[in-house]
Each structure stands twice: as C-alpha cells, then as structure tokens.
Efflux transporter outer membrane subunit (Xylophilus rhododendri), 473 residues
Amino acid sequence: MTNKKHPLSLQFLLPLVAALVLAGCASPPPVDTQALADAPAAFKEAATPAGWTRAAPAEAQPRGQWWLAFNDPAMNALVERAGDRNTTIQEAAARLAQARALLRGAQADRLPQVGLNGGAQRQAGANTINGMNPATIVTAGVGASWEVDLSGRLAKARDAASLDADAREALLQSTRLAVQADTAQTYLSLRSLDAERALVRETVEAYRGTLDLTQRRYRNGDVAELDVVRIRTEMAATTSDALALDRRRAELEHALAVLVGDAAADFTLPTGAWDTALPTVPAGVPSTVLARRPDVAAAQASLLAAQARIGAAQAAWFPNLSLTGSAGYASPELGDLLQWSARAWSVGALLSLPLFDGGRRDAGIAQARAQFDAATAGYRGQVLGAFREVEDQLSGLRLLAEQSEVQDDAVVSATRATSLSDTRWRNGLVSQLDLLDARRVELRNRRLALQLRAARYQATVGLIRALGGSWTA
C-alpha cells in the first residue's frame, strides 16, 4: 500500500497565523516622560540654573576613591576595610547573585530542554502483549521539548529578570557607597570627639589650678568658703561633661567596629590628632552627576522591569506552542532493550489558547500595571529626593563656612576675656564669679567651634554620598 503526501491544510495553519498576529499586539505601555523628573542644569546652591535637561543614565561611570581627598591614612584604611568586610555589603552581594541566578533560569526557559529517561512498568490489561496476564515494559531513551515563544512572553520575562539583576547591582553599589560614607563619617565623629575631649579635660585642669589657688587663699583667710565651693562645682560639672564624651566615643568606636566587620570587643581606634584635610567641592558641579547615583539607577531599572512584566502578563492571553520529541527503546525483556527491533520514537506539537480563566489573567495584567505605576512614582521620588539631598548639603556647607568664620572670632574674643579676667581676679580687681563666667563662655565657644568644624566634615561626606561619589569621576 502506498502513502500519499497530503499538503498542510488551511485549518492547521490558521491557528498558527492567528497566534503570530496576536503576539505582535503584546507590547507594554511606554514610559510617560512627562511623569518623570527632569534634571536642572546646575544646583541652586552652586550656580544659577541656565536651563533644564534630562540626565542620561550613567551608573557605569567610576565613582572614584573619594575618601583619598581627605588625606587621612587611618580613614583610608578603615573605608577600604569596610568595603571588603562589611556584612551589609556582603548581604547585598548575595542578593545580586540570587538575581543573576534567576536571570539564568529565565534564559534557560527559552532554550530546548533535553534529558535522558528510563523506567520499568509492570502492567496487565487488554492493551498488553500477553492480554490480561501481567507484563513488564522496560524503556530507555532521550526526550526533548521546546516552547516556541510566539507571543514573546519568555523574552519579556527574561528582560524583566535582566533588569532586576541590574537593579540589584546598582543597589549593591548604593550599599557600598553608603557603608563607605558611614565609615568615614563615624571616623570623623570620633576624631572630633577626641579634640573636644582634649579641650574639656584642658579646662578641667585649668579649674583644678584655680581650685588649688582658691583653697590656699581660703586657708589664709583671704576668701570665703563659698569661693572654694563654686570652683569645685564648676570642676565637677566639667569633669562630668568629659565622662559623657568618653561614653559617646566608646559608642562610636563600637559602631565603627561593626562597619568594618569586626566584633566591638576586638576593635580599638587609638586616640589621635584631628589633622584630616577638608576637601572643597568646586563651584558649578553639573546636576547630571546624579545620573550615576546607584539608587537612582536601581529605581530606573525597577521601572523598566515593571514595564516588561506588563508585556509578559499580556502575553499570557496568547497561544502557547510546544514542540516535543523522544527517541529510544521499549521492550518487555531487559535483555532485548537495546535491540534494533525495540526502537521507538515520537514527535509532537501542542498549541493551546486560553479562552476563560475567571479573570485570573486580567487580574495579572492589572497587578503588573499597578506595579508599573508604583515604580514610575518611586523613580520620580528617588530623583527628586536626590536633588534635595544635594541642595541640603550644598546649603549646609555654605552656611557652616560662614558660621565658622563668625565663631572663630567669638573664640578669639572669649579667650582674651578669660585671660584678662584671670589676671584681674589674681590682682583682686574682679570677683571669682566674673572669672568663672569668662571660662564658661570660652569653653562653650571653643566647643561650638569644634562642633561646627565637625559638621563641615560631615556635610562634605554627605555631599559626596548625595552626588554618588567623587565629583571628578
């Protein structure tokens, strides 16, 4: 008997053509650029804006070793150590590895799946070789399957997974920058406390000298006991302030230990001089440097991933075409399994089209659109927040510099007033209260000057963090 070759019928081709036409309609909505934040040409605190421009993504640009600008070897070592050993960075790196593994899984879904299979089955029935008598069927072979991505669903899922991995990578960079900035700021806080502690203890020694002199005068009958009590009270109160600064330094030292990945009991930062350089951010820094901020890049990648997932949710309504094939051997006897006469093969294709699912797919599309809207708002909020952070630090640096100049003048005047009051008190021209007031004012002004200096360092590191790294990168 001869076999006739029948051409493919039109009824077979129509579902495939319809699937391809519908797949072309599965496209996610475009990003509304009017809903996104524009980047000003310059920051308000640095220069007058000369126009508006949209910042292109630049998260791949180098951020530089910005901490080297402070010219402090101890701080450099701590920042680099935190970048290698901090547990928060290690956790973010693990999340990035997880996202990349999910991306490889999404890419694998688009490739043919091939595997070996084998088995043995004991059965009885009308379809077996021995009728109703039990028989054993042994099989071994190779199976393959491949889902033809007609609607682009798998491609969109792969794209979304890729963008998720990009977002995780940007978040890792953001975490690393945040940890480095926290390490630098904690170190600078420690050094400023060291300077303040030295100042307060210097004042305590001055009070102690005054107390000794007052006690001698009291024993000689030159002053009343009230003078001794007053100076002893001032010395005790100042000593209490010094101990409070010691407690605060211990807390900062413990925090720094965690940042660099050490146990608090095993970490010690010796008291040192505060000779860290204060770098100056040049005027006219363009606002486009914010495009390389890793958190902004992460928000942008999340937005694009949400956009891709809308297309993947829409594609769930379109037909799925799966191709399958297998080849191997099947035999009732294990010894005959690899005989040429026991060979078997099959090829198949399955085209499925969803008709009714109770609204589950529509709900998936609505959920994807809601996530896209949330990601759009989140991206805009991230950009606006980045601009606010930079403007805050720029205005803070400007005002702190002006305040420091005024405060330095106050320190000079207060120091001179203390010196004159001490001389006049020793000569009996002013009372002890005048001397104590002068010293109290001098200490307050000198501590405020140190705190303003520390605030300028903190604001500089904060600005570098807000800019996403070194402004020269």
Notes: Residues 1-25, 47-58 have pLDDT under 50 and may be disordered. The beta strands are 39-40, 52-53, 113-123, 135-148, 320-331, 343-352.
